[in-house]
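User: Second chain of the day. Same drill as before.
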Amino acid sequence: METSSSRVRARAATSADFRVLVEFNLSMARESEGLELDRARLERGVEAALADPGRGFYLVAEFDGAPSGCLLVTAEWSDWRNGWAWWIQSVYVMPAARRHGVYSALHRRVLELARERGDVVALRLYVERNNLPAQATYRRLGMQESHYLMFEASEPPGR
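Assistant: Same format as last time:
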């Protein structure tokens, strides 16, 4: 199943999308956070997610037939709500495809999949504080800023 408009199509990623997912993640980290990711580590991470749906799943959006955006969905169990919170992560849309409904198609597909499952109680994502265009897009699609702050521990030694 997929979501599409005349020029944009959102679909499940396959192993054939491996290279584009790696390149999109590298571009996203560089653009949004000024980070240069370790390519070999990223490749192992993308490969692991593609091979094991328990780790999450990627969606790819095509704009005029070419891969132009992606995202990763991971799941977190909520005991308070007795259901899954899906985290939308690793969102990237190529600059030339922005403002053409690429992210909207991906977002709609996530919503469709969540509704089909019936046990997803929330969609969540985090966004850089200064990424105002992305925040405006998420608001326009019905998401709201959470009252939670996110805290993160540094990576454990040995990784």
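The two ends are 37 Å apart (CA to CA).

User: Great, on to the next one.
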